[in-house]
Model the fold of this input.
Amino acid sequence: MSSQPTVASVVLAAGSGTRFGHDINKVWLPLNGRHIISRSLTNAAASFKDARIIVVINPDDEEFARKALAADAMPTGIEFVYGGASRHESEFNALQHLKPAILAGEIDIVLIHDGARPLATPELFGAIAAGAAQHGGAIPTIALDPREMDATRQERVARVQTPQGFRAQPLLEAYEKSSNDGFVGTDTAACMEKYCPEIKILAVPGDVFNFKITYPQDLTTAELLVPIQ
Done:
């Protein structure tokens, strides 16, 4: 693997807006002059040269999605993939889209990110990619305060964020095995832990501001933290 691995950033945006109270995924809502998803996609690409950027969408959102990204003057090279019934299936679909390039050795690292986390910084994407290149996998984590838990635990407990990054070929193999088995992971790391236990996933310091916009109050908080454009 070269000192500057080739990266594909997959940004997930195929969910519904049920918990937010909308009939469309909240990532297509405005955040200080740009759509939430556009901020996520911009940060996902900023630390890399010639990265492939994949946005996974609900097929019903495609027309709106294309218009929204065009309105935000996003690069035309962003690739669209249809999501599935679960987060895991959406990740699988993205990896199948990237499979020819992965098998050809054209992509070294795949990062998978929640589109509803627009405050993940370019520096965090870069740190995750570097950790994945060196160790095989990397995820951002924040240690939980014991007061946040309802039971005493001896082991250290952490909150896991995205982006999560892994070497491309083992990641593809893990998801294809999971498809054959019918396994559905809660996140990318869960699938890798099951099918590639030999890969020791690096915990990279996360960011308290890298929260997921799930409810209206989360969007209100985000509006205080990002510049108006």
